[in-house]
Specification:
The complex is a heterodimer of chains A (1134) and B (511). Chain A contains 16 helices and 58 strands. In chain A, strand 27 and strand 28 form a beta hairpin. The longest helix of chain A is centred in the first third of the chain and has 14 residues, at 365-378. Chain B is mostly helical. Chain B has helices at residues 2-16, 38-51, 68-71, 85-90, 99-122, 129-154, 177-194, 210-223, 227-242, 281-285, 304-309, 386-401, 403-417, 434-449, 455-461, 465-475, 493-496, 500-509; strands spanning 266-270, 302-303, 320-321, 324-325, 339-341, 355-357, 360-363, 381-385. In chain B, the strands form 3 sheets. Chain B has a 3-stranded antiparallel beta sheet. Chain B has a 3-stranded mixed beta sheet with strand order 4-5-6, with no helix packed on it. A two-stranded antiparallel sheet of chain B has the order 1-8. Classes of the chains: A mainly beta (1134), B mainly alpha (511).
Chain lengths: 1134, 511
């Protein structure tokens, strides 16, 4: 051992460098003199038969048959063979003793299942010399959390140790020697010692860690062995700052090809998630969520703090194991589980303020009245009518109510989470409690959620493991109705359009109304009305896993999920309808129950070291049902009961109860085969039966196959010295969709009632106009091809994944418009095809990795092109009862062959007709009227007339691409995260502006008048003239945006006291900046998505889907205002 | 491997036991099991009656009020200030996408399909033959009524008398009005043979009767200007009146009292009760900002021009809300309401700043003598009443025998209303010519049957649709755009998009 001279003036600074490993496997070198103590060895028993088998193969066989996982450098095991070994249910120590005998290797248990193998330096006596200093220190992860079990060694010596449960270590080493820190999942780190005696080491996660385990359907796989397109997100990707209230929000902008939209910014507003575009026209396009093995459609509103990882199965080969329900992709959520060792307590909390981003310039009261009188005169035939809207006395009024201001407030959002993880070798428990509360920026809108989770894993004996997951949550919200088209049922319509000359309250305290005004003012609707929703969810499921022989694992899962939504509504006497009906109350209960059972058998074996097989077979049974009941009453003596004593009302006005169920039965199998760890194959097959289809069409088969080539294992690739990892993947598969009504194939009847005498009612039945019989209704099937490549460069500092896909969905489940004279409005049918194709990029880069300063960038970008291939030749139109209640249900979007879903539809606006100008296609138009383009006639040619055949596609809700960029900086104890996401090339139909521009915002002052002709805003809006209310290109706006979604600055204090391991404080701003040319409140909005998701029977995160939501994306009408949030948060690790 | 086979085998056993996929229906009926018993058939018939008044609890479609937009707003009678579709109807600037055009059509055909389904199932149901025929007769009457409404508004239309799978209905041919009339006549004649003159109270007051069938027969014949046949059936109804089955209410106003659920003047009507089956008629037709009848919307109100046609001596002129002080304070400085005044013709400026000029005038018909001020009401809506038939009689007599023969019938209605009778002298001479009498009968139908879904078919039947509507538009300062083709409304856009025959026809039907 050479000693280095040290210049006391210029001590050599520790060389800071990250060690990157060429072969992509985390090298985990341990040089240990410590003897393994039997105490730490897990109880799993090993059976092994080996004759002249390479040592690596023997270890692999153990891995396949037990819970043990080995970590070693392959160089170390080269040329090492097991001569003869035969074990039956032997302990690890016995097996390892034999396997490693006659080698210079030893092993060490890192935890219950992880075994590291390193060189044994026996025979070289290690004597403590005078010069050796004792170095103490602590190893943490990138967040500063203690990292137990890290091996610390002095390079070139036999000295080594393992960090304890708090990450602390102590080792003797000389200045000038190099210390190496390593643990699986993190990059190995080396430091050359100077004079320091204490070290704080931060390890960074190894993104290229191909040994890390990824959850796939009904099992797990090493990342390196994946054949499908799967994006895996860890807890740290999901909840680092900001007011993320549910799992779907946490996903937003984080994964390529996953588009997350909060349909409404209302507290508890529904989310919609699209993986690789929309496949389906009429049924939901929401992915399937599988939470701890339990399939559910309600995964999106989980408490994000409970999540350990999320795996997004994007291509068919990954999702096909979920067959019938995999067509929209699958999001597998794994919740945190208990850990053995000292219990850890973590608190995460934040509090934030939210502020409305108001950008409408409203007319003041006087301007509004003058304008109203002017507009009155601009109506045909009323040219001379004076004071048609407001009299002279009213014009003197000084009332100027800013309804937006009156209706809004500063929102407050807070979240608190407490988790305890602990256990011993046999029993591990996690308990988690969460509380989230948001007071919305509109008065009387709020949302709160309390959730609790207990996850228990129990090892019964060497063969049997079992566990339970229990999750319960209650969400309380005060909601408002944002979907209707009249003031009573749409508070935002009222807030944005109501007369500013009406006071909020009259002198006597009653709500103000204009003389003769119908209904209530918006504040009465907002604060007078009670509208409470209580959503309870309970989920319990248990598993039992048995390994009768090492190669075979049997697993049974069973559970139930009960969701209940209770709504209570009350209109007190101070409101319009409550006033004339003496209080109106209603209460409803919706209970859904999902029972699930599945069983799988997995058999895994490796033959001759090179052929690794794993076979899975399974069965699943799922029964889902719901029941709904409601009661509506009126006539109370007092407002005090609200909706809590319906018995106190004089009159029952409605009562309702119904119940439905559906059944899904599945058989499935999967074969994984890998040759030499280089060529990987996956085949799956699933056969599903759904009760929703016609009796002869219930069963569907969903096969898939995938191939992956780990090219980095090929010599010619290694010789390029370019790639640190390189994998090529190809996949094909079919997945299905049955998300339609439970009895969609039947011709259903509806019930009604009638009075023949004006007092008693008689019950009746009649056809349900939207469900004619279709006994041949069958599966909608999506066939998907995927090609992907995973690349690592510069020792995996730069990781790039590129996937290309083509999806074709056939036998679309479409709610087809029927001629109304058939007696039906629409019917469910299988028709036509839709395709999606696209490219996704995910890039992660370690730009700077320094002991004190790191900078990481993650970027994802996705391009998807959607096209309707076939819908039987007839366009399908989507209507909305907008923009005014008295205007027809305008068709605003079209489903047309050759065009994408989300095609906005209407007239092409050419501008304002000027005085003296005649425009032949609109002979009746006068100066100031809008001019529309004559595009077509009944013969497909311009016919010199403006009518319905002149409508065309005027915009697209589909972005050209969407992207998200996360930059993370760490400097000493500071961390800074900047998350930007954006969308390019999509349009929105701004119906809100259609309703405001003509009489409410200052734009109206710039409308065409004889004195103001240089404008594109027609006289008197679009509503009183013949072409009034036409949806047209004047209201189509480019909704591309770039949004600084979140910026978080954190500071972490470590070893504050004995009580705390670490404390992290952070401040975050959400929506600080948005770059967009869109003129509405928020470019990220989807009114139709919200309307169909806000039925009161679905909760946050379960957008209902439906034809209008899927093909009618791209409308903004009375959206809940977007807000900016300022958050302060705290994480404490005890 | 032995384990594997054992476990696979046991799994297989488990699985075969759990592969039943038949879902259970708890709260739903299907067409397969909804028409099995007499009770089922009765319920199906009730369902069809209910289709006249869709949406219990939120009733304003079709005969619950909505129909007035296509029958009365596309004439000189109704006037709406509401932007969008209502204005487009009252200004004759509508297009095929008008919601009122669409929904009325939809609910009319809803009745047709439900009747056809009932008729296709009833033969297989075991029940008393007389009862069975009565059900068939009621159903066929309702189908005939729906087809009358369809042909009144659109003329030629798809004609279905049997159940046709809806996916086979695209591009259905348009049957002519004459062809459809044949079905209406056949259906109504079946009703004449099988329905009672009146129902026992225990069976319900408002079911279809022999008199309703006869009235509808008279209606379709008179529409076809077949006065001889029309006379047969109108006389049949009047004979029932003479027999005491029908009777004029002595006070025209009392017909409209909320407590007058059903009197002998009603031949066919729909009833409401304010709890589980309330109407929204009072809401939609009632006055805005009125002290006695508060909180109404005045959604449906008559034009100034139409109201001015009433003689000042006609008490029915006062059966409207006009020239009254409003309930809401004018502004923050006063407790007085505005005075709502009917402007004099040509008056464009209110006389003072406490006066508002009325733009349209709400009828008292559907808010007279409110029982309660609640949101939903228990009012009756007349589809046929005896006054209607008496005026048909006048019309028929005028055509067949001249004005003198018609005079007693028109005067019968005027006398009951308290209006001066024609021939009583002064400003009300007896009409001398057939043409003059026809005009008076048309006017009288307007005065008496205002907002009872009659105006448009009346104007068309009298051949005066274009002339009267264009004169009305001109008096409002608008272009007289009404053409002969516009006597029929455009087919709803949704259907024209699925039926090329309708699309072609629509080209001529929009202004």
């Amino acid at each position: 051992m050479t000693k280095k001279a040290i210049d006391p003036k210029h001590p050599p600074r520790p060389v800071l460098k990250a060690l990157m490993l060429m072969n992509g496997i985390t090298l985990f070198l341990l040089t240990l003199t410590l003897h393994v103590s039997a105490k730490g060895i897990a109880q799993d028993k090993i059976s092994l038969e080996a004759n002249n088998m390479p040592l690596a193969a023997a270890l692999k066989q153990i891995e396949n048959n037990t819970f043990f996982r080995f970590v070693y450098s392959s160089d170390l095991l080269q040329n090492k063979t097991v001569k003869a070994a035969k074990f039956k249910k032997a302990t690890l120590s016995r097996v390892m003793e034999l396997l490693l005998s006659n080698t210079m290797l030893t092993y060490k248990m890192i935890n219950d299942s992880l075994v590291t193998i390193g060189e044994k330096k026996e025979g070289i006596a290690y004597e403590k010399s005078e010069e050796l200093a004792n170095i103490k220190g602590r190893v943490t992860d990138e967040k500063g959390n203690a990292l137990p079990g890290v091996s610390v060694s002095v390079t070139g010596s036999n000295r080594g140790t393992i960090a304890d449960e708090n990450g602390n270590f102590s080792i003797d080493a000389n200045p000038g020697e190099t210390l190496e820190f390593s643990i699986v999942g993190y990059k190995t780190y080396t430091v050359k010692l100077g004079n320091e005696t204490s070290l704080n080491i931060k390890l960074e996660p190894d993104v290229a860690d191909l040994n890390s385990v990824v959850v796939i359907g009904y099992g797990t796989q090493k990342k390196g062995d994946l054949t499908g397109a799967i994006t895996s997100l860890k807890a740290s990707d999901l909840t680092s700052g900001g007011t993320v209230s549910n799992a779907a929000q946490a996903l937003q902008g984080r994964a390529a090809g996953v588009m997350v939209l909060q349909n409404s910014k209302a507290p508890g507003g529904s989310m919609s998630v699209r993986i690789r575009g929309a496949n389906s026209i009429s049924s939901t396009n929401e992915p399937l969520y599988v939470v701890d093995g339990f399939a559910t459609l309600n995964g999106a509103d989980l408490n994000p703090n409970d999540i350990e990882s999320m795996e997004i199965l994007k291509d068919a080969s990954a999702a096909a194991i979920y067959g019938a329900r995999g067509a929209n992709g699958v999001i597998i959520i794994t919740t945190k589980r208990g850990k053995s060792g000292k219990a850890q307590i973590t608190y995460n909390g934040y509090i934030g303020l939210q502020k409305i981003n108001d950008q409408f310039e409203m007319l003041n009261g006087k301007q509004y009245m003058t304008l109203a009188n002017d507009l009155y005169k601009e109506i045909d035939g009323q040219a001379n009518q004076e004071y048609g809207a407001y009299t002279q006395s009213q014009l003197q009024s000084s009332i100027n109510t800013d309804w937006i201001k009156e209706a809004s407030r500063k929102g407050v959002v807070q979240s608190h989470n407490l988790q305890v993880q602990g256990g011993n070798e046999n029993t591990k428990i996690l308990t988690s409690l969460g509380y989230f509360k948001q007071s919305g920026v509109l008065k009387n809108t709020d949302y709160s959620r309390i959730s609790a989770r207990v996850n228990v894993d129990q090892k019964v004996n060497d063969f049997i493991k079992s566990g339970v997951t229990i999750y319960g949550q209650r969400a309380n919200s005060n909601i408002q109705d944002y979907g209707g088209n009249i003031l009573q049922s749409n508070v935002l319509l009222g807030i944005l359009t109501y007369d500013p000359t009406v006071p909020v309250y009259n002198a006597d305290g009653s709500f103000g109304r204009p003389p003769g005004g119908r209904g209530d003012n918006p504040l009465a609707n907002l604060v007078g009305r009670q509208n409470e929703v209580v959503q309870d969810r309970f989920n319990g499921n248990a598993y039992l896993e048995i390994k009768p022989i090492p190669e075979l694992t049997g697993r049974v899962n069973a559970g139930a999920e009960i969701a209940q939504y209770r709504t209570g509504k009350y209109l007190p006497k101070s409101t319009y309808q409550g006033g004339i009906d003496d209080g109106v109350a209603s209460s409803s209960d919706y209970t859904s129950t999902r029972q699930l059972f599945d069983a799988t058998l997995t058999y895994a074996k490796t033959l001759n070291e090179v052929h690794a097989f794993s076979v899975l077979g399974g069965y699943a049974y799922e029964k889902t049902g719901f029941a709904f009941k409601s009661l509506a009453v009126k006539g109370f003596s007092t407002d005090l009961f609200s909706f809590n004593n319906l018995d106190a009302a004089s009159t029952i006005t409605g009562a309702n109860y119904y119940k439905q169920e559906s059944i899904l039965i599945s058989f499935f199998g999967r074969l994984n085969y890998s040759f030499n760890d280089k060529y990987l194959f996956t085949f799956t097959m699933r056969r599903d039966g759904s009760s929703r289809f016609g009796a002869d069409h219930r069963w569907g088969n969903f096969p898939s196959g995938a191939f992956a080539w780990r090219m980095d294992k090929e010599g010619f690739i290694r010789n390029l010295n370019l790639f640190s990892t390189l994998k090529f993947r190809l996949g094909y598969g079919k997945t299905g969709n049955d998300q339609i009504g439970n009895y969609a194939s039947y011709a259903l009847m509806a019930t009604t009632r009638l009075t023949f005498d004006g007092s008693a009612n008689t019950a009746g039945t009649h056809l349900n106009q939207s469900s004619p019989e279709n006994s041949s209704l069958k599966w909608e099937t999506t066939t998907q091809y995927n090609a992907g490549i995973d690349m690592g460069f510069f020792n995996s500092r730069l990781m790039v994944t590129v996937d290309g896909y083509y999806k074709k969905t056939t036998d679309l489940l479409i709610s087809k418009s029927l001629p109304l004279y058939s007696g039906f409005t629409s019917g469910q049918t299988n028709l036509g095809a839709v395709e999606n194709k696209g490219i996704e990029f995910e890039i992660s880069s370690k730009n700077i990795t320094n002991q004190n300063f790191t900078w990481d960038t993650k970027l994802n970008l996705a391009i998807n092109r959607n096209k309707v291939l076939d819908i039987g030749g007839k366009d399908i139109y989507l209507t909305s009862s907008k923009p005014m209640g008295t205007v027809s249900e305008e068709q605003f979007a079209v489903i047309r062959e050759g065009q994408p879903l989300g095609s906005l539809f209407g007239y092409v606006y050419l501008g304002v007709l000027q005085a003296g100008e005649t425009y032949a296609p609109q002979p009746a138009s006068v100066a100031g009227d809008p001019k529309f383009q004559d595009i077509s006639g009944p013969d497909g040619k311009p016919d010199g007339k403006i009518d319905a055949s002149d409508r065309t596609i005027i915009g697209s809700a589909n972005p050209k691409f969407i992207y998200g960029v996360t930059n993370t900086f760490n400097y000493r104890n500071f961390d800074l995260g900047i998350f930007v996401h954006g969308s390019v090339g999509n349009d929105l139909l701004n119906m809100t502006r259609m309703n405001l521009e003509w009489n409410r915002t200052t734009d109206a002052l710039n409308r065409w008048t004889p004195g103001n002709t240089n404008t594109d805003i027609p006289r008197n809006g679009f509503f009183y003239m013949k072409s009034g209310g036409y949806i047209n290109s004047h209201f189509i706006e480019n909704a591309s945006f770039l949004r600084l979604k979140n910026i978080t600055l954190g500071y972490t204090l470590r070893n504050v006291s004995k009580a705390f391991n670490s404390i992290r404080l952070y401040a975050a701003v959400e929506n600080l900046l948005t770059f967009t040319s869109y003129s509405g409140w928020d470019p990220e909005v989807d009114t139709k998505g919200y309307e169909s998701g806000n039925t009161g029977t679905t909760g946050a995160g379960s957008a209902g889907g439906g034809q209008t939501a899927n093909a009618g994306a791209g409308m903004d009408f009375n959206a809940y205002p977007a807000m900016r949030s300022y958050t302060f948060g705290l994480s404490i690790n005890f | 491997m032995k384990y594997l086979s054992i476990i696979s085998l046991s799994l297989l056993v488990l699985v075969t036991g759990c592969s039943k996929l038949e879902p259970r229906l708890y709260s739903d009926l299907t067409t397969a099991n909804a028409y099995s018993t007499e009770s089922d058939i009765n319920a199906a018939l009730v369902g069809i009656y209910a289709d006249l008044n869709p949406y219990p609890g939120d009733a304003w479609m079709y005969y619950a009020g909505y129909l007035v937009m296509t029958t009365d707003y596309t004439t000189d009678m109704g006037f709406s200030t509401a932007a969008g579709d209502p204005t487009k109807l009252s200004n004759f600037t509508y297009d095929a996408n008008n919601r009122y055009i669409r929904y009325n059509w939809q609910y009319m055909y809803n009745i047709v399909s439900n009747v056809n389904l009932l008729l296709s199932k009833i033969e297989g149901v075991q029940m008393d033959d007389v009862k069975k025929k009565r059900i068939i007769a009621q159903a066929r009457f309702l189908r005939a009524l729906a087809y009358r409404d369809i042909t009144d508004a659109w003329g030629a239309a798809p004609l279905y008398t049997t159940v046709i799978p809806p996916d086979q209905t695209a591009n259905a041919p348009l049957a002519s009005v004459a062809e459809i009339d044949e079905l209406i006549i056949e259906d109504c004649k079946y009703g004449l043979d099988n329905l009672p003159e009146a129902w026992d109270e225990s069976e319900g007051l408002s079911r279809a009767t022999k008199g309703a069938c006869a009235t509808l027969l008279g209606n379709v014949y008179i529409r076809a200007h077949d006065y001889q046949n029309a006379k047969t059936y109108v006389d049949m109804v009047l004979a029932m009146k003479d027999a005491g089955i029908y009777q004029l209410n002595s006070d025209f106003k009392n017909v409209w009292s909320e407590s007058n659920k059903f009197d002998k003047g009603f031949i066919f009507c729909i009833l409401h009760e304010p709890g589980m089956n309330g109407g929204e008629i009072a809401n939609h037709f009632g006055p805005a900002d009125h002290k006695e009848v508060t909180d109404r919307w005045q959604y449906y109100a008559v034009s100034l021009e139409f109201w001015r046609k009433y003689s000042d001596q006609d008490p029915r002129k006062q059966f409207f809300y006009y020239n009254y002080e409003g309930a809401s304070p004018r502004d923050e400085h006063t407790t007085h309401g505005f005075y709502y005044m009917v402007p004099a013709p040509g008056q464009t400026t209110p006389p003072s700043d406490t006066v508002k000029l009325l733009k349209n005038i709400a009828t008292k018909k559907y808010s007279y003598e409110m029982v309660s001020n609640s949101y939903y009401d228990g009012r009756t809506i007349a589809i046929f009443r005896i006054e209607d038939v008496i005026l048909y009689k006048a019309e028929i007599e005028n055509e067949l025998n001249g004005p003198t023969a018609a005079l007693p019938y028109i005067n019968q209605i005027r006398a009951r209303a308290g209006a001066p009778e024609y021939g009583s002298g002064g400003a009300f001479p007896a009409p001398a010519s057939k043409e003059e009498m026809a005009q008076k009968i048309l006017d009288e139908r307007g005065y008496e049957l205002v907002f009872e879904y009659k105006r448009r078919p009346d104007l068309i039947r009298f051949g005066k649709y274009e002339a009267i509507c264009n004169a009305y538009l001109t008096s409002r300062g608008l272009n007289p755009v009404v053409t002969a083709n516009m006597k029929y409304l455009p087919y709803p856009l949704l259907d024209a998009q699925l039926n090329s025959g309708m699309a072609a026809e629509n080209l001529n039907r929009v202004p």
